[in-house]
C-alpha cells in the first residue's frame, strides 16, 4: 500500500522587485526536484521536494519550496510508471499551492515551469525504493 503524506510548503520567500515591475519583461522560473530515501523497520518510501525560483533582472523575487512523502509497505514493488505517477502527483500539489499563494504577489499572472518527466532520472530513484 502507498500512502501520500500532506503536502507542506516549507519556504515561501517573496521579495518584490526594487524597481517598478514591467509585466512585459521576462521573469525566469527554474524548478528542481530532490528525492530522498526514507526507511523504517516496517515501511520504505521517498520524500519529494520541489523548489521553484522566480528571477527578474538577476534578482530573486520568489523562492518557493514544498515537499511531501510517500510511505510504502516493504513488500510492495514500485515500477517506473508508478514512480512517475507519484512524482506527478507531488508536482500537482506543488502547483496547486503556488496557484493559491501567487495571487497576493506581483507574480499573479505567472505559472510554474511544467514538469518535464523526460528529465527525471527514474533509474537513479528506483533503487531508493528497494
Structure description:
The structure is a single chain. This protein is α+β, with helices and mostly antiparallel strands and 130 residues long. It has one domain (2-129): Bacterial Protein-export protein SecB (Roll), CATH 3.10.420.10. It is 20% helix and 39% strand. Strands 1, 2, 3, 4 and 5 form a five-stranded antiparallel β-sheet that branches. Strand 3 and strand 4 form a beta hairpin. The protein is elongated, with a radius of gyration of 17 Å.
Q: What is the structure about, briefly put?
A:
With 130 residues, the chain is of the alpha+beta class. The chain has helices at 80-101, 122-125; strands at residues 2-4, 8-14, 28-39, 43-56, 59-73. It has one domain (2-129): SecB-like (Bacterial Protein-export protein SecB).
Amino acid at each position: 500500500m502507498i500512502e501520500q503524506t500532506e503536502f507542506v510548503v516549507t519556504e515561501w520567500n517573496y521579495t518584490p522587485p526594487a524597481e517598478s515591475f514591467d509585466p512585459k519583461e521576462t521573469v525566469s522560473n527554474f524548478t528542481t526536484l530532490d528525492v530522498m530515501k526514507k526507511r523504517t523497520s516496517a515501511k520504505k518510501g521517498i520524500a519529494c521536494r520541489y523548489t521553484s525560483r522566480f528571477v527578474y533582472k538577476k534578482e530573486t523575487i520568489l523562492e518557493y519550496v514544498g515537499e511531501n512523502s510517500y510511505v510504502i509497505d516493504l513488500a510492495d514493488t514500485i515500477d517506473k510508471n508508478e514512480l512517475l505517477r507519484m512524482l506527478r502527483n507531488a508536482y500537482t500539489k506543488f502547483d496547486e499551492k503556488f496557484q493559491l499563494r501567487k495571487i497576493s504577489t506581483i507574480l499573479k499572472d505567472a505559472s510554474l515551469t511544467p514538469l518535464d518527466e523526460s528529465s527525471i532520472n527514474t533509474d537513479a530513484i528506483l533503487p531508493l525504493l528497494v
